[in-house]
Structure formats: C-alpha cells, structure tokens
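Hi Prof. W.,

I finally got the TetR/AcrR family transcriptional regulator prediction working! I wasn't sure whether to trim anything, so I left the full sequence exactly as given:
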Amino acid sequence: MGKAEKTRQFIIEKTAPVFNTKGFWGTSLQDLTDVTGLTKGSIYGNFKNKDEVAVAVLEYNLDKVRAIITEAISEKKSYRDKLMCYPDLYENFALHDFPSGGCPILNTAIEADDTHPILKEIARKALLYWKDTLIYLINKGKEKGEFKSDTDTEENALAIIALIEGSRMMIKLTGNLNHNHAIMNTLRKLILAL
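And this is what came out:
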C-alpha cells in the first residue's frame, strides 16, 4: 500500500465507528477530524466529500460483518450448525469484532431509506446477499437431508433476518440484553425445526 492508500484506510477505520453510531447525518466533519487527528484538508485530499467517506465506511463495516460470519460458518460441518452461527454470534455481538454501533445494514436502512439513495442501495444489496446466503445454506441442508424437504427456504431466510434485525433494534431502543437472549433462543428453535 502506498501512502495515499494507507491514509485512506486509516480514515475509513477511524471513522467507521462514528458513522455506524451517529449515522451519516449525525456525523460532522469535526467528528472526522477529531477521531482521525487529521485536518479537513487531509480528509478531503483523500475523499471528494463526506458522502464518499460514508460509502467507503459502510462497505468496510459490511465486509467486517461478512468476514466474522463467513469464518464462523466455515468452521462448521453441518448446515444446521452453520445456521446456528447466527444466533451464537448475534447473542454475543460484543465479544466479536463487530462494528461499533450495531448492525450497519439496520443502521443504514433506518437512516438512509429516504435520504441517501447511494447508502440505501449498498445496504439493500447487502441485505439481499445475506438473504441469498441463508437460502443457499438452507437449500444445501435440504439436499443433505438435514432439513425437511418441504422447508420454505425464502420464508425461513427472511425470518432469520427479521429476528436478528428485530433483536438489534430492541437492544438499541431498550438497552435490555435479555430481549436479545430471548430472541436468539427463538431463532435457535426455528433452526432446529427446519
């Protein structure tokens, strides 16, 4: 990596928690300079504007979540155990290197749905990728005889996502981790029933 690429990566890594916690509109240029220790000129020397930083940060945070989940799934042999990685990881969100501020898909979807079409599109694609990954895992489990042949793959993939994202939203609003525990137990039951 050259100096410019290192500086860009530094800015992305340092501002990722700020954007994911405060959101696009809540993050100011002052926040970016405070967290990086760089001047406004240094930041804008590496990115055209705040939008470009936000896009890079969202992609960085999404890649971080995908890497954690992919690594956990790759360590499991059965497709049921691969799906069980989701409640296990999301129940212990804080113990893993998940992005500060919660789920970047949920955070972006809530803030950017009507205000920032580029961020919304990135979050939409990430959500669809997640759904497709779950559909793949469920279909492979059906092929291997681990899941019932009449299991509705899309319906269950959507339910898994809804339970996880609903849990994230409830934690953010209430601060009550017991809700997360209860919802992740419901998710485990859903996976066991496939």
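The chain has a mean pLDDT of 92. Does that look reasonable to you?

Thanks,
D.
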